[in-house]
Every structure is written in C-alpha cells, then in structure tokens.
Design a protein that fits this description.
It is a single chain. This protein has 330 residues and is α/β, with parallel strands linked by helices. It has ten helices and 13 strands. The protein has a nine-stranded mixed sheet, with helices on both faces. A four-stranded mixed sheet has the order 3-2-6-7. α4 links the parallel β8 and β9. About 2% of the residues have low confidence.
C-alpha cells in the first residue's frame, strides 16, 4: 500500500449548479455556474487546498457529469481512485437559491437513487481506510442501504485507529422527513429523527470526533442545548465534540476536560452553503497538526467565513496562506 492518506472522506458527491444572480428565485435565474459538490467531497477538497493528501470514497453515474466530477477532483489534487461509476443511475445535481445573508434553499436531484448511496461493503479498501490518519463519514451515508452497511463496515475496519470523524450532516428529506430537524420539521420531522437515531448511535461508537450544528446534534442526542449536546456526544463514545452554534460561534469540548467556545468571524455573506465543509476541512488540518482547541476552532471558523464570502463551495475553499492572511487582518 502507498503512504497513508492524511484524510479519506466517504459520502456525497455530485455537481452543484449555482445561480449567478442572487436575491431571486430559480424561476427568475438566467445563468448558472457548475461546480464540484457533495459535503464529504467538499471537505476533502478543503483539506487538499490546505496541503493535505486526500481521497474520496463515493460513486457517480456513468455520464458526462460523472466525467466532470473525476476531472474536478484531479484538478483539486484529490485522489479519485475510489470514486466508481454506477451504470444505471445519474450523477446527482443540486441547485440552490441565494438570498444573503442566511437563506440558501437547496434542491437535491438524487432520484431514483443517488449513486453515492450504492457503495457496497465488499468494494471498500479497508486497509487504506484503516491506515488513513483521518477517516470522515457523514450522517447521509447512513440513510439507505447499501451505503449504510458500507459506512458501518468501514467504521468497523477502522476500529477507532487514528482520528475518525462523524459529520452528523442531517438532511431530513433523505430519511423521509421534511423541513428542519426541530419544531419546524413538519409532520414527519420527529419520525425522521427517530429513524435516524439508532444508526447515528451505532456510528458514534466507532467515532473519535463528532461535528455538527445544534439541529444535527439533536438527531444524535435528543437534546438542543449546545453544552448538553456536547456532553452527550462524549458519553456516546467520542473524544471531541464540536457543536456549531451559528451566530453564537462554535463550541468544542474534549473528553479530557478542555473546552473552547469561539465566536463567529463576521463577513459579508454571499453564499453560506460551503462554509461548513470549509470548516470541516480546516478542522481536519488542525487535528493533523495537533493544534490546541481554541486556535483550531478560530482557524476553522476563518476558513468557513472565507467561503461564505464567496459564491461557490469547492472552488472557493481557501489555501493556508489565505486563511492566515484573513486571521492576521482581524
């Protein structure tokens, strides 16, 4: 086997079609830009932009958008060897609307089924997954078989070696739910959370780091207070719980008692959709560098803020020099 990867992510991949006009609905948009997308993929791109050796485990359609995904990964310096085609399913496409500063509706085209949910356990390179310095999985990967079984098999092969990150990544529509994760979740919100929770609990038993916002942490823990969520995640097996609190910043709590609560980095928001993925890639970069919690959270916040100030997700991910310059100017 080659030298272990700094980061292997497993999960969604596809094409983001973003409007080049802001403040209008898709019905009024006239021009669009095409970008590499998918949360797990964007995290790998973000870490690669910071100088880390990264790969993605996912699947695409056998179509021109699938070809584009492979080319974009290579252009970003992300290894695409474990991104394989599914002959009879299209590569997913995601549209968004852009209403700054905080309204960015997403429209997922993942029917009849997304190829990234057709990862089979027997296809995994378990040796490479076990050897990676960080392995990153997402909640969406647990929503359907065979991806669910493959994700749990990868975690078992990993056996808590190195750093294993569970991105709580809650998308209720993938679990049969509607709307958000809490009171605004519609009639099926609670049912969707209940369906997801046992699989979240199973994944957390294999993870060393959990990261997500309050809605996502609620799916795993049943709680909404950020500190209570963090403590519950530690009780469920992780060593580090990172709870993103939106305008209140980010809370990080380690099993050894260390805590950091860092305020957000203010910017003029253009598109907030890629900020969490930039945060994730920068978090991995900081974990690999052995940074203390406070500086690591500030660095990750800065990376997210930079992307929020730009239109795209993957192509907007900052370099280490850009993050450092941004922090120096604060």
């Amino acid at each position: 086997m080659t030298e272990p990867y700094d980061l292997i992510t497993m999960g969604r991949i596809g094409v983001d079609i973003y409007p080049l006009q802001t403040g209008v609905s898709l019905a009024q948009v006239e021009t669009f830009g095409k970008f590499l997308g998918g949360s797990a993929t964007n995290v790998a791109v973000a870490a690669a932009r910071l100088g880390r050796r990264c790969a993605v485990v996912s699947r695409t359609g056998r179509d021109p958008f699938g070809d584009y995904v492979h080319q974009a990964l290579r252009d970003f310096g992300v290894d695409d060897r474990w991104v394989t085609p599914v002959a009879d399913l299209p590569t997913p496409v995601t549209f968004c609307e852009i209403f700054p500063p905080d309204d960015f509706p997403l429209y997922f085209y993942r029917r009849p089924k997304a190829p990234d949910l057709v990862i089979h356990p027997e296809e995994l390179d378990r040796e490479a997954i076990a050897a990676a310095r960080i392995f990153w999985i997402t909640g969406t990967g647990l929503c359907e078989e065979p991806s669910r079984g493959a994700t749990l098999a990868a975690l078992e092969a990993r056996d808590r070696r190195g750093i294993t990150v569970f991105d709580l990544d809650w998308r209720p529509m993938f679990w049969g739910g509607e709307g958000g994760a809490s009171g605004d979740g519609g009639a099926t919100g609670a049912a969707a959370r209940a369906a997801a929770r046992p699989y979240y609990e199973a994944a957390l038993r294999h993870a060393t780091v959990a990261v997500g916002n309050v809605d996502e942490a609620e799916v795993a823990t049943g709680l909404r207070d950020p500190k209570a969520c963090a403590e519950a995640l530690l009780d469920m097996g992780v060593e580090l719980a990172v709870v993103k609190q939106g305008p209140k910043g980010v809370l990080a709590v380690h099993r050894d008692g260390r805590t950091a609560e860092v305020p957000p980095t203010p910017v003029e928001v253009v598109n907030g959709l890629g900020a969490g993925d930039a945060f994730g890639g920068a978090l991995c970069h900081g974990l690999l560098a052995g940074r203390e919690l406070g500086p690591m959270m500030r660095y990750a916040n800065a990376a997210g803020a930079i992307v929020a100030s730009r239109l795209a997700c993957s192509s907007a991910m900052p370099t280490a020099g850009e993050v450092e310059a941004f922090l120096a100017g604060r």
